TrEMBL record:
TM annotation in the entry: none
Protein's name in the database: Activator of Hsp90 ATPase homologue 1/2-like C-terminal domain-containing protein
InterPro entries: ASHA1/2-like_C, START-like_dom_sf
Top-level taxon of the source organism: Bacteria
Length: 150
């Protein structure tokens, strides 16, 4: 479980999780359609010039509270809770193949920081794939490996 606090209303965070234009500014993938409705879609992993299409199915889209979709064989569940200061975002990323927990946590850590800056009006640009190595990815992965004892 990955938890982050944002100083923005759930509707603002929801839009960042579902709108393809916003996803392209912070997420590890692009989306061919808005994720705010159930049904099949494609999420495209981006690593420099390399693009990999991954099938996805939006299973739940209850704006602005719960978004759940498959990403290949993995399952992502985003929950948004309104707080006095904005929104608590809870991500549960269920891996189909264990062993990558620390790497996935480090990746989402970087993405969440890029999202925070984007929502705060201080965008730094998307950090994906090999570019993450220049932004502390390896140190984060090692720290999460210790915390997760993997």
């Amino acid at each position: 479980m990955f938890v982050r606090e944002f100083r923005h209303a759930p509707a603002v965070v929801w839009a960042a999780l579902t709108d393809p234009g916003q996803l392209d500014q912070w997420a590890p993938f692009t989306a061919v359609r808005d994720l705010g409705s159930v049904g099949e879609t494609t999420l495209t992993m981006v690593d420099g010039a390399e693009r990999t299409d991954v099938p996805a199915v939006v299973r739940r889209a209850e704006a602005p509270a719960v978004l759940e979709y498959s990403w290949g064989d993995d399952l992502l569940r985003w929950e948004l809770e309104e707080t006095t200061g904005g929104t608590r975002l809870i991500l549960r990323h269920t891996l189909a193949h264990p062993g990558m927990e620390a790497m996935v946590a480090a990746g989402w850590h970087l993405c969440a920081e890029v999202l925070r800056r984007l929502l705060d009006g201080r965008p730094v640009g998307v950090i994906r794939g090999a570019d993450a190595m220049d932004h502390g990815f390896e140190e984060l992965r090692e720290a999460y490996a210790k915390v997760l004892a993997v």
